[in-house]
Design goal:
7 helices; globular; mainly alpha; 118 residues; 62% helix
């Protein structure tokens, strides 16, 4: 395994993004999941240095995707868990879980980097 190093070049960044994509389905509490977290932090730091952008809001991204696809709250149940969970999430009474993030990423194509935003 290649050692983890700071991202200094666009090429380094692309390598890290590729590795993140490979690890996105890692199981919580596994070495791969921890590596995913570390690489995500490194990529985020690099992105903030190279091209700082306003922080995107995960809930707003979900609402935007719903609007674009003509989805209603009930349509998110397969990705979130229940009607009440969807409502709580969209009203910011609860946060996203890793399982929700994976589902929204894989099924709706919402970038994991947005869903993981603070």
């Amino acid at each position: 395994m290649e050692p983890i190093r700071p991202i200094k070049t666009p090429e380094d960044y692309q390598k890290v993004l590729k590795r993140i994509e490979e690890l996105i389905d890692s199981q919580p509490d596994s070495y791969e999941f921890e590596l995913l977290e570390v690489l995500s932090i490194l990529a985020d730091e690099y992105e903030n240095k190279v091209c700082p952008m306003p922080e995107l809001d995960p809930i707003e991204a979900i609402k935007y995707e719903m609007q674009e696809r003509g989805l209603q709250q009930k349509d998110l149940v397969p990705y979130i868990g229940s009607k009440s969970k969807v409502s709580e999430l969209l009203n910011r009474k609860t946060g996203l879980t890793i399982k929700m993030i994976k589902s929204l990423y894989h099924e709706l194509g919402i970038p994991a980097s947005i869903l993981l935003a603070r």
